[in-house]
Structures are given as C-alpha cells and as structure tokens.
Amino acid sequence: MNLTDYVRQVSQEDFGKPFRHQAIWNSRLRSTGGRFFPKDGHLDFNPKIYQEHGLDVFRKIVRHELCHYHLYFEKKGYRHADRDFKNLLKKVDGLRYAPALESRNAKPKYHYRCRSCGLDYYRKRRIDTRKYGCGKCHGKLLIVED
C-alpha cells in the first residue's frame, strides 16, 4: 500500500480537503499510532498498528492525524486539548487514543529462581547471575528452563 496515496484518499473522502504533504511509516514509534509535524507538514504512522489491528483501526488513526493536519493549516486549535480538535475528531469518527499493541505487552523471556529461598523472578532482560543475587535473602540466582 502506498501510504501517502492512502492518506490523500482518506483526507478527500472523510474531510473533503486535500492532503498535500508526505506520509511515512515509522517503525520506531512505540506507544502512539502516528505523529503530525507542523514544521514541514508530514505525518508518521506506526506500521505495527496496521499489522496488528487492521485497516479499520488504522483508518481511524489516519483521521486523528489528519485532524491535527487540517486544523493546523486552518489556524485553528489543533492540539489534543483544544475544542476544535475534539469536535472535528468526533465528527470524522477518529480514535482519541491508539490501541495497545501485543508486542508492547510481551511476556517475560527469562525465569530465575533463588537457590536459597526459592523466590521466582521473571524478567524481559537477562540478569548477570554472577553479579546479582536474590533481593530477599541474597542467595544465588539460577535460570529456570521452561
């Protein structure tokens, strides 16, 4: 899918106004669906939102960013707290917040157990067991194979 063409289509269909800048995929976005850059007018979108939630949710994210875009160039309140923004977002049925991503809520990869007291530790990152020990009894930690 050509992202800029898709955003132009959504802008014309849902707002009746042209989108004259670039739309770019940005895989570095973590907790947001997209971003609007007033300095040059381009939009960034999170490809994981599209992959995990589909085109319907992604279209609502595009509408959200286009609300920022069109209001900014009309010199109206384009920030989240502004009444103009809230009214336009409601009118075009855009999403107020980006949905949670599965990849963001990943399960811990590592399971450690204290040799002395048996306390379990679950971590996303590896622990250097030679350097760190149990926080309760200062015993030695062992990695548990699941």
Word description of this protein:
By secondary structure, the protein is of the alpha+beta class. The chain folds into two domains: about 100 residues, Metalloproteases ("zincins"), catalytic domain (Zincin-like, 2-Layer Sandwich); about 40 residues, no CATH class. It contains three helices and six strands. The strands form two sheets. Strands 1-3-2 form a three-stranded mixed beta sheet, with helices on one face. The longest helix has 27 residues. The model has no long low-confidence stretch (mean pLDDT about 95).
Report the total helices. Answer: 3
Helix share bin: 25-40%
CATH superfamily membership of the largest domain, which one?
Answer: Metalloproteases ("zincins"), catalytic domain
- Please trace the helix and strand order, writing H or E for each element: HEEEHHEEE
The largest beta-sheet arranges its strands as 1-3-2
According to CATH, what is the topology of the largest domain? Zincin-like
Oligomer: single chain
User: What is the domain tally?
Assistant: 2
**Would you count the extended β strands for me?**
6
Gyration radius over CA = 22 Å
The top-level CATH class of the largest domain is Alpha Beta
Unreliable stretches (pLDDT < 50, length at least 5) are: none
Task: Give the N-terminus to C-terminus distance in angstroms.
Answer: 40 Å
Question: Structural class per helix/strand content?
Answer: alpha+beta
Mean of pLDDT: 93
Biggest β-sheet: count, sense, barrel?
Answer: 3 strands, mixed
The CATH architecture assignment of the largest domain turns out to be 2-Layer Sandwich
Strand content: 5-15%
Overall outline:
elongated
InterPro entries: SprT-like_domain (IPR006640), SprT_Zn_ribbon (IPR035240), Uncharacterised_SprT-like (IPR023524)
Keywords: Cytoplasm, Metal-binding, Zinc
Subcellular location: Cytoplasm
Organism: Streptococcus loxodontisalivarius
